[in-house]
Amino acid sequence: MNNNALLLRALRGPLTLILIGILFVIDHNGAIAFTKTWPIIIIFLGVVRLGERALAAEQAPPPPYSQGGAQ
Amino acid sequence: MRRSSVVGPLILIVIGAIFLLRNFIPEFRVMDVLGTYWPWLLIGWGSLRVVEILNWHRNGQLSPRGGRFQGMTGGEWALVIFICLLGSGMYAARHANLFDANGIHLPNWDILGERFDFALSGAQAAAGKAPRIVIDNARGDARIIGVDTEEVRVTGTKTIRALTRDDANKEDKATAFEIVRSGDQIIIRTNLERASNSRQAHADLEITVPKGATIEGRGKYGDYDIENIDGAIEVNSDNAGVRLNNIGGEVRIDLRRSDMVRVVNAKGNVDIKGRGQDVELENVAGVATVSGQYSGEMKFRNLAKPFRFESQNSSLRVERINGEIELAHGRLTGRRLIGPIQITSKSKDIELADFTNTLEIDVERGDIQLRPTRLPLSKINARTRSGKAELILPIGAKLDLKAAVKKGQIENDFGEPFRVGEDGRAATLTGSNGGPEVKIEVDRGDIEIRKWTNEDAPPPPAPPIAPRSPLEVTKQ
Predict the structure, then answer these.
(1) b (16+ CB within 10 A) / e for B87-103
(2) What is the C-alpha to C-alpha distance for residues B86 and B122, in angstroms, rounded to an integer?
(3) Of the candidates B126, B270, B153, B282, the residue with the CA atom closest to the CA atom of residue B208
(4) Phi-psi category of B173—alpha, beta or left, where left has phi over 0 and alpha has psi -120 to 50?
(5) Do B243 and B260 meet the contact criterion of CB atoms below 8 Å apart?
(6) B80: which chain A residues are within 8 Å (Cβ-Cβ)?
(7) At residue B105, does pLDDT exceed 50?
């Protein structure tokens, strides 16, 4: 796992926290109820996981056959 | 190595500071502030962590080993959930009155669209002299007036919240107003529950009906003003203010919540059930029953038949009220009552003047003041576990007194033939000049018996208040 994927994984928690806070602020302002907006959190977590996967794949280990050819 | 986060200590500092502020500045309402702004605590917390993590990342302190660097630990998530529950609880408690006051005027309404008004009207001819009319209007007020006619006529306004005129028109079509005859009933239906979001529509109705009609009203939210009806009235609603005037038949009101129930000039029995604030009954010729929980002021005036009040903590029975009974703020005052009277309560101060026939009072906590004015006296049995009992007798009263306190004092300003006996902290006052038995028991408190002075003379009866017509009652 490279450094960026690591960073994203570390940020996942705090960003979710901020998102929850924002949803509650919207709820308390009377715009849209939290009971309606909560699935955004799940979507957000899914997007972050996808991002982690993408970043991790950028530095995938080289395929094994590359070590066998030199002789 | 991972340093531990700076957020934990900061939260402690903030919480400490908030409570310190509250202790030094009383006007600073900590619960209100927390209830409103607590989500910012989450946002601030998250932002601090983001800054921290970016910092660690720049310094190369993030390491893949172990789960510790994950930004948030399980314990922290538990704390977040706890804060969310607590915060929304405080928010709900603080804003509950907003929902109570008026469920259809929530602030978010202005965000959800514009108001569109639609005129309603309908009529049912040849309804007969005494039809049974059912009003089914989920949200909105209804005013019903009986007149000399054989026609049921409805006018009113339907208000729909929608983003566009087209949406509103669609909702209007879906919730078509109906007035139909079904068997011997005439049903007035606003069909608001068919709207895509039924909270977004309400209908205010003005209905004129034959005088002899019987009315049944059903709804979730909205007031009923009913006047000049000779038939029975039945109102069943989740949240309604009900005002009835000049009703000939039985009245039954069943509410889950209400700000006001007023029944004036009813010839039949009146039965009020449920929860609410104020209740007012005046000039009722039938048997009146009020049961449930009411937090406001209650006034009962001129009830010709037995009256019964039941709540979780109190019950009251009176044969007849010529004057009035008021129940408010932990206090029951009554004057010009015809017994037998029976009062039990957990906690109430009781003040009765000018009552006849037997009287029975049993309160756990509260003062009792009794001022019988008519001779001869009747049997009285009053008891309070904790409080002061005061008996003010007219001159020349004949009674067989048995007063006793377990812990407290007795004062006898009436004089002969009563004698005080003391036994440690207990005391008694007994004596008889040949009247009915008057028994007063106090566990902890004092008893005082005295004669009337001029100040105790019963106040002249209050002039009757002219009943207000529901039509004159302006809506807030």
Answers:
(1) bbebbeebbeeeeeeeb
(2) 50
(3) B153
(4) alpha
(5) yes
(6) 17, 20
(7) no
Distance between CA atoms of residues B174 and B180, nearest Å: 17
**Closest residue in B to A34 (Cα–Cα):** B88
pLDDT digits (tens, 9 = 90+) for B413-461: 888 888 888 888 889 998 888 889 999 999 999 999 988 876 655 555 5
Given an 8 Å threshold on Cβ–Cβ distance, is B111 in contact with A22? no
A34 to B40: CB separation less than 8 angstroms, yes or no: no
Beta-carbon contacts of residue B239 (< 8 Å; ≥ 6 apart): B103, B220, B221, B222, B255, B256, B257, B258
Question: Which pLDDT band, with edges at 50, 70 and 90, does B290 fall under?
Answer: very high
Task: Give the pLDDT of residue B405.
Answer: 93
* Nearest CB partner across the interface for A10, out of B44, B62, B108: B62
Residues B350-373: tens digit of each pLDDT: 999 999 889 999 999 999 999 998
Three-state SS at B98:
helix
Q: A8-41 b/e with 16+ CB inside 10 Å = b?
A: bbbbbbbbbbbbbbbbbbbbbebeeebeebeeee
Dihedral angle sign, alpha carbons of residues B390, B396, B398, B404: positive
- Give the model confidence (pLDDT) of B34-69 as tens digits: 777 888 888 988 888 888 888 888 877 766 554 445
Q: Which residues of A have a CB under 8 Å from any CB of B?
A: 1, 3, 6-7, 9-25, 27-28, 30-31, 34
Cα(B212)–Cα(B221) distance, integer angstroms: 26
Give dist(CA B255, CA B215) in Å, integer. 16
**Banded pLDDT at B110 (limits 50, 70, 90):** very low
pTM over 0.80: no
Q: Which residues of B402-433 are buried (b: 16+ CB within 10 A; e: fewer)?
A: bbbbeebebebebeeebebeeeeeebbbebee
Which residues pair with residue B286 across a beta bridge? none
Question: Which is it for the CA torsion A58, A62, A63, A64, positive or negative?
Answer: negative
Mutate which: A2, A8, A18, vs B, most B CBs within 10 A: A18
**Which residues does B contribute to its contact with A (CB < 8 Å)?**
36, 38-50, 53-54, 56-57, 62, 64, 69-72, 76-77, 80, 84, 87-88, 91, 106-108, 111
Longest dimension (CA), chain B: 102
Q: What number is the ipTM of this complex?
A: 0.70
Cβ atoms of B207 and B225 closer than 8 Å: no
